[in-house]
Amino acid sequence: MINKAWLPPDNMGQRCCSTGRLARFRSAGVSYLKGARVLGFLALVFFMGVFSVASQTGESRARIYERDNFRYLESNGLPDHDHGEFPNAHNPNRIRQQQYRFRMALSPATRSQSIPLGRYLFGVALNGVPFDPGTAEFWNRDPRSGWRYEAMGSLDLGLDQNHAHVQPDGSYHYHALPVGLISHLREENPSGMLLLGYAADGFSVFDDRGRADPMNRQSALSSLRSGYRLRTGQRPGGPGGTYDGTFIEDYEFISGSGDLDECNGHVGLVPGSDTPIYHYHLTGSFPFIPRCFRGEPDPSFQHRGGPPGPHPHDPRQHPPRERPR
Ligand SMILES: [Zn+2]
Ligand SMILES: [Zn+2]
Fold first, then answer.
1. Closest by CA position to 207, among listed 192, 227, 217
2. Closest ligand to 215 CA?
3. Domain ranges (residues) in the chain
4. 65: nearest Cα among 98, 103, 9, 97
5. Residues of 42-72 as b/e, b for ≥16 C-beta within 10 angstroms?
6. pLDDT of 30 over the 60 cut
7. What is the pLDDT of residue 153?
8. CA 212, CA 293: separation in Å to the nearest integer?
9. What is the pLDDT of residues 201-246, one digit of tens each?
10. 277 - beta bridge partners?
11. Of 6, 122, 159, 187, which has the fewest CB atoms closer than 10 Å, so is most exposed?
12. Phi/psi of residue 48, nearest 5 degrees
């Protein structure tokens, strides 16, 4: 488990997370010191440009602790792995430090009715980066159209190699399996189930590997299948065309068709627990990150600042553009 020493914000060093950038930063500084006027000036401009990039990111900080029947996760929201360039052509926002303090129940209970994601983040990864699968991009930019774009579909929202991108407030967040985090965790645990983080209702979140028979420790691990499938045929209205995963509404849940329930969870044995417990999995196909809760989400996971709604992506900031096929 990642459980890093937490430093208060004034102790956070501003350093670049990419060694490539650091090398460019150094070479720019050396050129300037050589004193050739034009070169020096160009180097200074370059230096300042690189510095502005370097100062946008910093060291990832995350701390997990337990108190009074709750688990807390405090973080600055910065990824602890390589990430894509932001802003980019399809995501205009820069990664900025956040001040997260998430709280979740240590002994969550399941409800008879699931709760839709609504205005909540789904959860948070062990490195302090939120799981935030929703979007606010609608067909025709009309929230009443009933057709909401899926970030992992054909609409290009500038996701990086970790299926992540950046909100207008600078928060880096995952829309599917966090590839960089998983490769870090795999160094310690090459083949087992990986605890990736926690949902807002307190249940644990694992990667896509699980047991086909979750109650049997001897059952082999394999990639779990969600119970969601693309609908067949043509969309009856709105954007028309074939159901192809561009929109969330292109999918339907078929009970029993996969290994998991409609919230991408199930009851089973997990590492560190002697008795079967409810837990979630991320999957390689829709919903990628669960879109509902089996327990009660904690208010600390509500989107901050924005109006009520599943996701404060501002459609004006990344207007819908179909990805060329
Ligand atoms: Zn997003
Ligand atoms: Zn499982």
1. 192
2. 2
3. 110-301
4. 103
5. ebeebbeebeebbebbbbbbbbbeeeeebbe
6. no
7. 97
8. 22
9. 999 999 999 998 999 989 999 999 999 999 999 999 999 999 999 9
10. 268
11. 187
12. -65, -40
With 0-12 / 13-18 / 19 or more C-beta atoms within 10 angstroms meaning exposed / middle / buried, residue 274 is: exposed
Contacts 24+ apart (CB under 8 A), 142-147: 143/309, 145/238, 146/238, 146/249, 147/235, 147/238, 147/239, 147/247, 147/249
- Cβ-based neighbours of 298, under 8 Å, separated by 6 or more: 102, 103, 104, 105, 200, 201, 202
Predicted confidence band of residue 6 (pLDDT cuts 50, 70, 90): very low
Quickly state the pLDDT bin for 303 (edges 50, 70, 90). Answer: confident
User: For 152-161, what is the mean pLDDT?
Assistant: 96
- Give the number of whichever ligand sits closest to the CA of residue 150: 1
C-alpha dihedral sign at 254, 303, 96, 323? positive
Find the 110 Cα to ligand 2 centroid distance in Å.
15
Residue-level pLDDT at 212: 82
Write down the pLDDT at residue 40: 44
**Side chain identity at 275, as an amino acid letter?**
T
Angle at 63 between CA 59 and CA 69, to 5 degrees: 160
19, 54 in Cβ contact below 8 A?
Answer: no
pLDDT of amino acid 4: 37
Distance 173 CA to ligand 2 centre (A): 23
CA of 184 to the centre of ligand 1 (A): 23
60 Cα to the center of ligand 1, angstroms = 19
Structure tokens given for 129:
């980066």
3-state secondary structure of 188: helix
